């Protein structure tokens, strides 16, 4: 049968089959005008075809993270401002003095590369690989769920056709997520002051940076001299970068805990199926809005809540140490206390972009117990000094626990005793371990008492000396 003899329904099915199979060559827009017999708007159908062809042409295994980078850089570079020579000089001087002050406040060594002033676009390029790694589990979950939901919404006679479109639909959902992530990271680049502003190690290992464009916004309402602000923020940025450079295991530890949380995310299938029933690929705004608002992510499970609590304790432990070290290093600054309080409040509240990131991946990177953790680190410093405090970052097993944040008296007593060469007082954990060992060896039990066994010789035959 010639092409012109096909009815509109057959022609429509043929167009879909060609598209779903990846054959987008030779699609004539004039063909769409013949779909009017099916009461389909040819203009709308052209928009749908363009959207789906674009998705198919960029389809690949996994998420196209290039979309996220392009979107983030578009937002970051909108104002087109670079770093002036004066800004670079001022911040270089601030970093140099901050490094000297930190040398007196911590035994953790300096960075292998000099810190620098960077543009928003440079911050995006440097940090995007980490954002991609953290968001990948959520992006994959949403893309897979969208594919499944669209398949469930299709009628039975279209199942064979939909089955061949899984890769396309996965790409559509994943691309929308990547675009939203790019928008969030781009907006985040307009808020952060330094590389360590969000608490997790997003900068490359050993790198420290300040964004002059955002530095001006941070200090606008504080009425504090710019040189004092620059010195404090440079000190804090260096302390954060030094810690992650020193404790090589810490970066992987933090990222693993974030990914553990993200892997537990399950898409709200009811909300997604309801959305898929009216999904129009040519107008993805509704899906985009649902992604950014977090509407597709249900309430946290018990496992996720536990993972989030562990992560918050870890972030608080890190930032509490940074807080104490920065306080000691900047004790010469008249306005240090005021700046420190502004930084703590800013971290506790978070900016609009950080809140959007929380909606997108279901995770708020807030060290909610930073004040309690800082009090713990202050007590440890007073008891054993900077060297004893910093040694706790040498190995994961030495790092203070959540219980130490709750009640640091036991930790301080143990460290103080060890510093004097004394045996540390036993705590509840030591007592429980001793009891477990005693039960395993039979010591302290009635079964192990020779008198109660009726043995004349308490030494078993196979253990008597020869």
From TrEMBL:
Residues 436-466 are annotated as: Disordered. Transmembrane segments: none annotated. InterPro entries: Zinicin_2, Zinicin_2_N. SUPFAM superfamilies: Metalloproteases ('zincins'), catalytic domain (SSF55486). Pfam families: Zincin_2. PANTHER family: HYDROLASE, PTHR39420. NCBIfam families: putative hydrolase. This is Hydrolase. It comes from Microbacterium enclense. The lineage of its organism: Bacteria, Bacillati, Actinomycetota, Actinomycetes, Micrococcales.
């Amino acid at each position: 049968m010639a092409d012109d003899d096909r009815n509109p329904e057959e022609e429509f099915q043929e167009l879909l089959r060609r598209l779903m199979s990846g054959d987008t060559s030779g699609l004539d827009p004039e063909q769409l005008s013949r779909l009017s017999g099916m009461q389909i708007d040819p203009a709308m159908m052209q928009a749908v075809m363009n959207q789906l062809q674009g998705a198919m042409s960029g389809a690949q295994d996994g998420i196209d993270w290039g979309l996220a980078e392009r979107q983030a850089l578009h937002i970051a570079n909108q104002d087109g401002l670079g770093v002036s020579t004066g800004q670079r000089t001022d911040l270089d001087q601030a970093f140099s003095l901050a490094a000297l002050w930190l040398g007196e406040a911590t035994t953790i060594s300096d960075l292998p590369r000099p810190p620098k002033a960077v543009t928003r676009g440079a911050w995006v390029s440097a940090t995007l690989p980490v954002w991609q790694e953290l968001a990948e589990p959520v992006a994959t979950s949403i893309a897979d769920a969208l594919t499944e939901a669209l398949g469930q919404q299709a009628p039975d006679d279209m199942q064979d056709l939909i089955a061949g479109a899984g890769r396309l639909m996965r790409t559509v959902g994943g691309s929308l997520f990547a675009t939203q992530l790019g928008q969030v990271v781009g907006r985040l680049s307009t808020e952060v002051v330094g590389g360590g502003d969000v608490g997790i190690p997003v900068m490359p290992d050993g790198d420290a940076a300040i964004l002059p464009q955002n530095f001006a916004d941070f200090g606008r309402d504080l009425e504090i001299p710019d040189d004092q602000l620059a010195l404090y923020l440079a000190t804090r940025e260096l302390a954060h970068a030094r810690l992650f450079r020193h404790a090589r295991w810490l970066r992987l530890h933090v990222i693993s805990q974030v990914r553990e949380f993200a892997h537990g995310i399950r898409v709200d299938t009811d909300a997604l199926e309801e959305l898929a029933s009216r999904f129009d690929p040519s107008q993805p705004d509704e899906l985009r809005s649902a992604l950014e608002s977090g509407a597709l992510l249900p309430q946290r499970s018990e496992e996720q809540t536990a993972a989030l609590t562990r992560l918050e304790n870890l972030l608080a432990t890190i930032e509490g140490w940074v807080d104490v070290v920065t306080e000691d290093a900047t004790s010469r600054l008249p306005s240090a206390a005021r700046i420190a309080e502004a930084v703590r409040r800013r971290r506790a509240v978070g900016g609009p972009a950080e809140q959007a990131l929380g909606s997108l991946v279901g995770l708020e990177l807030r060290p909610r117990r930073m004040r309690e953790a800082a009090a713990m680190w202050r007590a440890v410093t007073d008891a054993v000094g900077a060297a004893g405090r910093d040694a706790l970052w040498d190995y994961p097993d030495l790092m203070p626990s959540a219980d130490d944040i709750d009640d640091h008296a036991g930790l301080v007593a143990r460290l103080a005793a060890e510093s004097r060469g004394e045996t540390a007082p036993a705590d509840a954990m030591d007592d429980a371990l001793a009891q477990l060992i005693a039960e395993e060896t039979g010591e302290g039990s009635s079964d192990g008492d020779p008198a109660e066994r009726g043995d004349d010789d308490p030494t078993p035959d196979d253990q008597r000396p020869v």
